Amino acid sequence: MVTLSLLSLCLLSLLGVRGEVAPNFDNCEDSFFRNTPVSGLKIALPTPIEPNTQGLVNPAKCLSAYNAASPAYICQRNGNNYYFATLYDHGRRIPLYSAYQMDIEGVPGREGSIVYYEPQLVHPDLPPEQMDKIESSREIGKYNQNNECLERSPQYQRKYKLGWSQALNENFGSYDRGHLNPAGHHKEDASKATMTHTNVAPQDRKMNKGPWNRYETRLKDVLSAGCSKMYVVTGVVPGDTWVDQNKRVNVPSHYWNAYCCTDNNDNPLRSGGALGPNTNLSVVTEYNSVTDLETELRRLLNVDNNFNIFNGC
């Protein structure tokens, strides 16, 4: 087992990071209404601890993110630009929510496909922008070489490290990779940035392509009418089901959405949201205020009154 001193070194290394996986959302706070993230959502499971470190060389450095704090605060970055914020549950390997400003005026469209991963979930010292599997593997390989993390040890192999830190494409079984921040609410590069595995969770296929898709379209085409800005947070309620018996990736019991519509001075005009069970018989319930949605979510998430999605909307 990793000793307490080694764990302390890992945490100190993480706290010194000023990249895109950090202890806060400072680099992407404009994704939230009044620059205020969701509060009171303390439900993330601890980061999985590598059970077998016997005989490993330099595990504190070579497994530096395996004992990082959970949840992870991700400012989703593609290239040199920040596009949205994600609170990522290390223990369940799913996002708890993604927050963004909708592109109200832009032509909606799905750009790219879900290919990206977050290298800094593997090691805080890796590059901050999203990368596909080949690029991620290359960067992990460089890290291994520079830190003498010999890949003859299974725990140091590239795919093992990537899959330990986040869900891989093959970990979703029969479920769809359901977007929290949907590609269709953005255009061009912003749409491409949503195509990361840290922005998707297992979603029932019929729900994803049916009632939830219809609600996302309604949110873009109808509910945003008359808004100068539309702040959106989409999240999940973690469930009791896992994709496989090894409990690597959790299957949410519900998907939820909240929005805050503001005028050209960023003053709130209205709020609302939606909630739907993650099943093939899902019926999406809409709410005319975020307050009503929060009341139901506090019950489902088992959190107290400190849980608030928006600050004053």
Automatic annotation (TrEMBL):
Annotated ranges, domain DNA/RNA non-specific endonuclease/pyrophosphatase/phosphodiesterase: 80-307
Which named protein is this?
Endonuclease domain-containing 1 protein-like
- UniProt keyword Signal, yes or no: yes
Which residue range or ranges hold the ENPP1-3/EXOG-like endonuclease/phosphodiesterase domain?
Answer: 81-306
Which keywords, in A-to-Z order, does the entry hold? Signal
Would I find Cytoplasm among this entry's keywords?
Answer: no
Q: Name one GO molecular function term.
A: hydrolase activity
Secretion signal: which residues? 1-19
